[in-house]
What does this fold into?
Amino acid sequence: MKAKLPMIARILFGLIFFLSGVAGLAQQMGLMPPPPVEGMPPAMLTYFQGIMASVYFMPLLKITETVCGLLILIGWFVPLCLVIMAPIVLNIFFIHAFLAPSGVPLALILGALLIYLAFFAPPYAPKIKALFHKK
It folds into this structure.
C-alpha cells in the first residue's frame, strides 16, 4: 500500500484540478451556468467580480488547472506541474481563509496533497527538494 500512496495522491490531486479546470472553462464558454451568487459572502462576490473584470485571468487560471491536472493525472512532468500549482493552491487557501471559510477543509486537503507529493512522495520529492539546494 505504501508504494501506491504517491499514485493515489497524484491521481486525486490531478483529478480535482482537471475537473475544476474543465468545469471552469465550460462556464467561461457558456456551456455551463456560473455558480449561484446567492449565499456567497459579499467579500467573495466582490473578489470574483474583480477577477472576472480582468477578462484574461479566469481563462488563464482554468487552462492552467486543466493542463497541469491532466499532466499530473497521466504522470507527465509532475514535478513541474506541482511547482506551477503551488501558488494556485496557496491562493485557494487564502481565499477561503479570508473570504469564504466554508471552503477551508478542501483547501487544506489540496495543500496536504501538494505538500505530500512535492516533499514526501519518493518519485517527485527529490526533484522538488533539489530546487531548494544551493549550488
